[in-house]
Amino acid sequence: MPLPAALRELNHTQRHTVIASFLGWTLDAFDYFLLTFVILAVAHEFNVPKTEVTYGLFLTLAARPIGALIFGRLADRYGRRPVLMFDIVLFSVLEVACAFAPSLAILLGLRFLFGVAMGGEWGIGASLAMESIPAKSRGFVSGLLQSGYPCGFFLAALANWLLVDHIGWRGLFIVGALPALLVLYIRRKVPESPVWEQRKAQPREGLLASMRGHWKLFIYLMLLMAAFNMFSHGSQDMYPTFVQETLKIPAGSATAFMLTALLNLGALAGGLTFGSLSERIGRRKAIIIAALLAIPVIPLWMYGGSLLFLGIGAFFIQVMVQGAWGVVPTHLNELSPDAVRGTLPGFAYQMGNLLAAITATAQTWLADQRGGDFAFAMSAWIAAVAVLLAVLTWLGPEARGRGFGRDREAA
Length: 411
What we know:
The protein is an all-alpha fold. It has helices at about 5-10, 10-35, 40-45, 50-55, 55-80, 80-100, 105-130, 140-145, 150-175, 180-190, 195-200, 205-210, 215-235, 240-245, 255-280, 285-295, 300-305, 305-325, 330-335, 345-355, 360-370, 375-395, 405-410.
């Protein structure tokens, strides 16, 4: 379906819901990625190896399943909208607290708590949006929602480029309070999910009862999302360090910002393109094509030889990485039962994150084994994960166009 047609399918209220869900994930990612740009600065201030600072990324990713389960269950019981607003305020407050960490240990502890809050946002925002729009708009909206992640990366790069020399790494975390303002927009413009409203008067089952017969699906989705997260974090988290250490480009320079901007423009284009394409060719096929097309782009991405080719490589690697990801919000929500749609997609996603949380540290270790060669570490990682993701997707189910709110009717 052409992109303008997908947008025209949404009424005024639905557009506000999609915008709020998009901004929630954008600003969540913005707060997460701020740390990736200041790893070297934090290591220097606390006089520790950079590998120890990367544990902040590991702890954030490892904590996200806790938040996905807690906030997802709350959203299934009390509604998507109020829980989403509380979660956004919480991760914003924890981000600001990082600015005042007196030691690396305290900073790592705060990043763990931030991960709990961050883990709640994606599942709730995605279910709120997907349950509020027509089925034939899901592919495009899925790509749009997931594009919030690279947009957050871009905003973090922009903030780092414009502000870090003036306010330092601690000041960047204070800027991380801005997402809390989104709550005002949600409170005024975004209604509750109509699917949740329809089900709220029905008897509530516990998580174990709701998941009866769906545990194999959960395990499959968890493994699939582990591959997805190794794919995205493997191409993004250590990229600023690669730019600084391998390419010898200063963190706050215009050149570093432009490379990151091209990377994120590619991610935006990929998410929208493959998300929409999945409406025509299917969710699994779109994911597999995007994942496998990442492999021939790797040499240009890491070994381009000039800034022009490195920039082109950064653009196209993210077209493929986030192209595959652009299908995820609708794919997971369509596969999930109504009773646990606030919980299952986000929890499976974040449990996959837990399995993939070692990505940045593993890449750093692999690079150190070859004298700091991040190009080799990131290239080998992405090639292997692209194949793994394609195989897991091919082996799994698909429920494109499934009606929401009909589980009980079908029973």
